[in-house]
Amino acid sequence: MDITTHNTTDAPPPTPQPTEAERKPAARGATRAGDRIFLGLSRGSGILLLVIMAAIAVFLTYRATLAISKDHGNFLTTLEWNTGVQPPSFGIAVLAYGTVISSIIAMVLAVPIAVAIALFLTHYAPRRLRGPIAYVIDLLAAVPSIVYGLWGALVLVPHLNGLFGWLNDYLGWTGIFSWEETAPRSMLTVGILLAIMILPVITNVSREVFRQVPQMHEEAALALGATRWEVIRMAVLPFGRSGVISASMLGLGRALGETMAVATVLSPDFLIHASLLNTGGGTFAQNIASKFGEANEFGRDALIASGLVLFVITLLVNGAARMIIARRAEYSGANA
Amino acid sequence: MAKRIDVSGLSAYYGSFRAIEDISMTIEPRTVTAFIGPSGCGKSTFLRTLNRMHEVTSGGRVEGKVMLDDENLYGAGVDPVAVRREVGMVFQRPNPFPTMSVFENVAAGLRLNGSYKKSALEDIVEKSLRGANLWNEVKDRLNKPGSGLSGGQQQRLCIARAIAVEPKVLLMDEPCSALDPISTLAIEDLIGELKDRFTIVIVTHNMQQAARVSDRTAFFNLAAVGQPGKLIEIDDTERIFSNPSVQATEDYISGRFG
Amino acid sequence: MSNAAIVDKRPSALRGASMPKWSPWAIAAGSVAVAIGISLVAGFDSKIQWGLLSGLIFLIATYGIAARVEGRRQAKDRIATGLVWVAFLVALIPLLSLVWTTVSRGVKVLDIYFLTHSMGIVADAQPGGGVYHAIIGSLEQVGLATIIAAPIGILTAVYLVEYGGRGRLARAVTFFVDVMTGVPSIVAGLFILSLMLIFEMEPFGFAGSLALAILMMPVVVRSTEEMLKLVPNELREASLALGVPKWRTILKVVLPTSIGGITTGVMLAIARIAGETAPVLLLVFGNRFINNNPFEGAQQSLPLYIYQQYSQSAGENTAYDRAWAASLTLIAFVMILNLVARGIARWKAPKSGR
């Protein structure tokens, strides 16, 4: 983080880093067999990775076209998933809606809390507690999603009746929070569980980002007579914004593609419910896991088609995150 | 506006380590006081106790009294946030807020204290930038990021930011150590102008600089590494550099030291 | 000056009235009391309402009192502090509940018998049975995935750091490693499934390994890349200047210097894929019996076992108990990997100069 700039500095010049051009001769002079083999191996590995990515796209698309070409419904808008009957009719509308809405709920719940916890760990918690708490949250991020799913189904779901009843009583008039007193295994349940799941992930990355805010920016704010909250608003949050965005995108990617935690808590059906509280709905990943067992080969191709859509959505989200970060980079403070 | 600082019996700690011990001195209003001494002698630590920035570091704590006119900065019920509004600070490395424009940087401290009319804000920003001898260089790029300026301009931007909130005292922690000679000269000139309005305390490693800008000079030293730093003497700058009363000061100034 | 006059409304600039240290606790206690009072009068019966109400009253009271006593800026600061603490405490509840439930319910049936027996002759509704077959399956699938992914990942990172520079290929690889990191696990499973459909294969353990390897590779590349970048260039130059060829420099100087960090990265990646369920569900299918051969026939794995004990048990508590015990086993496995990885990272960390 070098703030001093080119033309006016009397600090010693930085130690010259050998540029690629300077390092190249060693590689170019790779006449020895050892060098050639090693370069080949490592370059080959890199190429293999590209080939795998291409293969994923190609094979998923191939199997997906097999299914979609025989779809008698509209693949994008049909509200059913009947692949075992003739003629088959299936569409992803419900899955797309469910995947997006549950991820939005998860993000709305998780991001503010995760940022708050990250701030808690970097600026508010008693110093002695910071390390241990951060460590525990780190480990929680490593808990497999199936365990979150099991906990969600057996512990979280029974505890949601109260919340759902309350939402229905006071916000039921909005429509999206009305509840027919069915089992609380709805899109909101999924969203809450996903939020709990991605909370440690987003917290961890945000905490790292906040820790990297240069001390001198915080001191600048302090020296102006800023309170702790004003220091955070002036120096910490602006500096950490792009980092928090990429942390959130990481969490969003997890939420979009999460399979087991959704499959365990959701009672799926193939309808788009106006209310977030009423049982039913589905997500791409959950639908694949739930329908896979009894699907024939054609059914599996149809599921692959839906998986391809999920793949594309996650690619788009990743791309968007990357663009946001790139655009923010010029203002991130990592100048000079 | 400027205020007198009266320090008595001040010690500062990092955890259990005592960094400076039993310092007493008086700093007159509208003067420039320079702190000199070898690395690690605690002069920066002492400077940071004058606006309660020392306690921001983990384990930092202070014993003793610092009177700003007739109020003890470390008295019961004193809000460190309020202290730092009264006693501004400029740091070793220029540290404009990287996400803010030149204008926003200068206005940052003002915005903390309630709302200003846009025109009033513009007036104060212009006045502060003029006060920091920076106005002519940045008046066309007020909305560009502050981090795009040169190092010397950034440091003057930081000075503008500090004086915009009209502190009584301005602390400068080696403000020129990251700058080239021409920028350094600009800052030194600026210090000479600012002392009409503020009490200025400056830490410097550069003895010529201390001789050039300051009215009074304080020499700090430590007995050995791991020992607390102490104030050896404080006197008129002229006297410190011509005829100091302590041998250690003369050794240090004449370069016969460590 | 004019603005100073606006700022200093208080008689002393430094000694703004401040609330005593215990005031947040007092306000908190007061808010809870008031909230319970209101709830009882209004007949609210849900504890969520009580909690929300206390929280709300706490924030309003804090702001009101602080704004009056200390001023608006301090009031905002206090609100922020309150919110951050509340967020932390609220988030603690589900996370602690998760850990507590898993441990307390998991230890019920977790014993040597559970770890050394399969589900071969046990129906889901019956007590007994164990996870031996799942542990074997998990170890084999994850082990094979590591054997595939770790070398490819490390070599790719070596290429990116040591050879690639800013070339076209290196940039493409970097980009697609990022993309690959975001591939959902079920999509990796579907990819292998599409191959299996083409070659008309039945589920088997190694198919799962392939999907897990795809998930593991980008993680290994990223962490290894970070570690290699930490190796100072002076070391490389010192070796090259001695006439050591580049590949030997990498093998003898660069990799040994960063081996601790690389190992840590690989172990964390293993910990991550060990918990993956979705691709295993599609490709390995699950099996009640012990199948030691990952290259033929359906296998079991720990995460899949948990899912099946939950989903196929129709609410039988004995099956739930096994699911919890298997969860505890899996978490223990993942945690041990994590702890060992951190231990290695700390032990092998380049010693700082002091």
Automatic annotation (TrEMBL), chain A:
Task: Give the similarity note.
Answer: Belongs to the binding-protein-dependent transport system permease family. CysTW subfamily.
Biological process GO terms, please?
phosphate ion transport
SUPFAM superfamilies, alphabetized:
MetI-like
Q: Which UniProt keywords apply?
A: Cell membrane, Membrane, Phosphate transport, Transmembrane, Transmembrane helix, Transport
Residue ranges occupied by any ABC transmembrane type-1 domain in the UniProt entry: 115-327
Coiled coil feature spans: none
Q: What sections of the protein cross the membrane?
A: 46-68, 88-121, 133-157, 187-210, 302-321
**Keyword Transmembrane helix part of the UniProt annotation:** yes
Instruction: Write down the superkingdom of origin.
Output: Bacteria
Q: Where in the cell is it found?
A: Cell membrane
GO molecular function term, any single one: phosphate transmembrane transporter activity
Which Gene3D superfamilies does the protein's record reference?
MetI-like
The source organism is Streptomyces shenzhenensis
Q: Which InterPro entries does this entry report, sorted A to Z?
A: MetI-like, MetI-like_sf, Phosphate_PstC, Phosphate_Transport_Permease
- A Pfam family hit: BPD_transp_1
Location of region: Disordered: 1-29
One GO cellular component term of this record is: plasma membrane
* CDD domains (UniProt xref): TM_PBP2
Membrane topology, from the record: Multi-pass membrane protein
Establish whether keyword Transport is in the entry: yes
Cite the PANTHER family for this sequence: PHOSPHATE TRANSPORT SYSTEM PERMEASE PROTEIN PST (PTHR30425), PHOSPHATE TRANSPORT SYSTEM PERMEASE PROTEIN PSTC (PTHR30425:SF1)
What this protein is called in its record is: Phosphate transport system permease protein
Q: Give a short account of what the protein does.
A: Part of the binding-protein-dependent transport system for phosphate; probably responsible for the translocation of the substrate across the membrane.
UniProtKB/TrEMBL annotation, chain B:
Q: Where in this chain does the record put each ABC transporter domain?
A: 5-247
- What taxonomic lineage is listed for the species of origin? Bacteria, Bacillati, Actinomycetota, Actinomycetes, Kitasatosporales
Q: At the top level of its lineage, which domain of life is listed?
A: Bacteria
**Listed GO molecular functions?**
ATP binding; ATP hydrolysis activity; phosphate transmembrane transporter activity
Q: Which UniProt keywords apply?
A: ATP-binding, Nucleotide-binding, Translocase, Transport
Q: Which GO terms describe its biological process?
A: phosphate ion transmembrane transport
Q: Which InterPro entries match?
A: AAA+_ATPase, ABC_transporter-like_ATP-bd, ABC_transporter-like_CS, P-loop_NTPase, PstB-like
Q: Which PANTHER family match?
A: ABC TRANSPORTER I FAMILY MEMBER 17
Record bears the keyword RNA-binding:
no
Per the record, what is one GO cellular component? membrane
Asked whether the UniProt record includes Translocase among its keywords, one would answer yes
In Pfam terms, one family for this protein is ABC_tran
Q: What is this protein called?
A: Phosphate ABC transporter ATP-binding protein
UniProtKB/TrEMBL annotation, chain C:
- State whether keyword Transmembrane helix applies: yes
PROSITE patterns, alphabetized: ABC_TM1
Location of the ABC transmembrane type-1 domain = 135-341
Arranged from A to Z, the UniProt key words for this protein are: Cell membrane, Membrane, Phosphate transport, Transmembrane, Transmembrane helix, Transport
**Transmembrane stretches, start-end:** 22-42, 48-67, 79-100, 142-161, 173-198, 204-221, 253-274, 323-345
Give the UniProt family note: Belongs to the binding-protein-dependent transport system permease family. CysTW subfamily.
Q: What is this protein called?
A: Phosphate transport system permease protein PstA
Organism lineage? Bacteria, Bacillati, Actinomycetota, Actinomycetes, Kitasatosporales
